[in-house]
User: What shape does this take?
Amino acid sequence: TPTVRNYELDRSQIVLSAKIGVGQFGDVYVGSYTFPVSAKSKTKANDSALSNSDTKYDVIQVAVKTCKANEDPEKTENFLAEAYIMQKFDHPHIIRLIGICSIMPIWIVMELAKLGELRAYLKANSDRLSHATLLKYCYQLSTALSYLESKKFVHRDIAARNVLVSTPTCVKLADFGLSRWVSDQSYYHSTPTVALPIKWMSPESINFRRFTTASDVWMFGVCIWEILMLGVKPFQGVKNSEVITKLENGERLPLPPNCPPRLYSLMSQCWAYEPLKRPNFKRIKETLYEILLEDSMNASE
Ligand code: ATP
Assistant: This one.
């Protein structure tokens, strides 16, 4: 059973400032988190005992998710579920959990992605973003997803809207509200209560609510497409109910402008109708790395 006991934070160490977003449970704020750093640990052993009690403080900017449904135990459980999931991960391209305040009002404190949502960032900087940078974002996300794959985690909502930007050269996967742990061979059948991201979903997810690492791979193919399209959403003007017929007729998202043929070929493999024919994330990561290298060599010629 998951525990976040050592993640409990003292609310007095956190000061909220501007509201930066709206989540399904409540508003998201930027905040500052002040925490003690032991001066002792930074002092060389022969530096005398003077600094033993010398506590220094560090301040970092954080993102704080709040929950408006504080009185409803079922809602607060669902809200905190994301924190339980995030605490298991430690990866440079996955938003880190810093801690929680589990007493009302409940807060989830996370690493702040200073530049916000990827889709908005892509749209705002479309004329400045180089091709190499977009490829780099895809590669970084593939390392995060390969890590999740190794931990037997299925995310179930891989899409550009769930990627945040830390720096102009660093993106991170966020939003673990839908992810579920699965054992090696099994898969998770979703409850049909949440609105499903049909246009990102694999045929088996649409038809049978079957979510596996292979269906995450399909979704990542769509996410790569969104990145190369600079934040355009897939299947614009198509009704959700029409998507499965198109996919079953062999239709797929079109080649984005300036997309290296090798990358489109990789995306197309992610969209193999048969889940077993799709590459795994380890393979995708390796292929993206090669494409990145190839691209940088071509650019320097
Ligand atoms: P939904 O399920 O509808 O996506 P949610 O409850 O999962 O909502 P998030 O999407 O995680 O909420 O957060 C809402 C918004 O707050 C994000 O779209 C983003 O703009 C902002 N936000 C969330 N987490 C962070 C973060 N760590 N750094 C910067 N901004 C963040």
